[in-house]
Amino acid sequence: MTHEIAVIPGDGIGREVTPAAVDVLEALEIDFEFVEADAGDAVREETGEALPQETYDLAASADATLFGAAGDTAADVILPLRTAVDSFVNIRPAKAYPGIDAVRPETDLVFLRENTEGVYAGHEDRLTQDVSTLTRVVTESASERLAEFACEYVDGDDHDGFSIVHKANVMRETDGLFRDTVVSVADEHGVETDQVLMDAFATRVCLDPDQFDVVVCPNLAGDVLSDLAAGLVGGLGLLPSANVGPDRALFEPVHGTAPDIAGQGIANPAATIVSAAMLLEYLGYDEKSAAVHEAVEATLENGPRTPDLGGDASTADVTAAIIDRL
Ligand code: GGG
Are 109 and 227 part of one and the same domain? Predict the structure, then answer.
């Protein structure tokens, strides 16, 4: 059976790390058909459109999508691409790897981020030159869909429950609805939850990440707090993610375009290659997925490493070392 994989490198280091992940997938001798498409700042410059219709349609029909990064056009690219796969949850594991100099080596977290609404899908207006507004939507149905997924996730993966991170003491109607809905679904499923205000979470996770395991949160909080967790484990070059919908999914590193190092061939490909390992698991290739995870882990531990991790290797060196270890 052939799997059609949409490959959308985007901009900046997305153009370097996405081909690296495709090289790893190609080395596994699975029947993949990779179809590449444009999105992001460069294609907008050329055509006026950051997300051409054919790219959207490809993501909406492919068996899975591998995406790199978007910069200034993030709102015009990432959010619609997630809609194309009807992705209601963004899974962001944040774990420390052996041998990597991490601020908190005991970190082992999974963020389950609401992916369709909240501030990122809100409506912004510039009322006057010096006044702007943002209207944010939170619905019971989206919160329920995420909570159902979280309950299945903790059951299937043998976790004790999950933490709900919100700011419902201030945003009573929006985060309040989110919190109440998630608690109610978890109660129906007999899944244990605790609640942490998002500001308190930011402090507590830095001081003692071990007290958390699976974290369920609204869209913006999930984006910000998972980047914070990246800081605890050694940097954004290490965090993969999966945007999962009922029938399709899109995989991307958590990091953006990194304009400061783009074009130099030194971007860390680990986050995108681990995202590809998540893609393999999603398509049912559990053993191959585990092999990629192990090869990445061994490479991070023993080298070569890119400069963000203190090494002097290139993206190509690290990718070749991972493929050698498969
Ligand atoms: N690879 C994902 C990417 O381009 N991240 C940059 C960004 O702005 N992300 C926002 C988000 O994940 O919602």
Answer: yes
Atom of ligand 1 nearest to the CA of 74: 8
Residues assigned a catalytic role: 120, 167, 199, 223, 227
Interface predicted TM-score (ipTM) of this complex, two decimals: 0.91
Last residue of a domain, one of 232, 256, 281: 232
Claim to verify: residue 113 and residue 189 sit in the same structural domain:
yes
* Residue of 302, 304, 293 whose CA lies nearest to 326: 293
Find the 70 Cα to ligand 1 centroid distance in Å: 7
Report the nearest-CA residue for atom 12 of ligand 1. 223
| C-alpha 89, offset from chain centre | 10
Atom of ligand 1 nearest to the CA of 253: 1
Mean pLDDT of 129-151: 97
Q: State the first-to-last Cα distance of the chain, in angstroms, to the nearest integer.
A: 22
C-alpha 255 – ligand 1 centre gap (Å): 6
Q: Is the pTM above the cut of 0.95?
A: yes
Among 232, 262, 296, residue at a domain's last position: 232
Task: Assess if residue 93 is contained within a domain.
Answer: no
Classify residue 242: in a domain, yes or no. yes
Give the whole-angstrom CA distance, residue 112 versus residue 215.
6
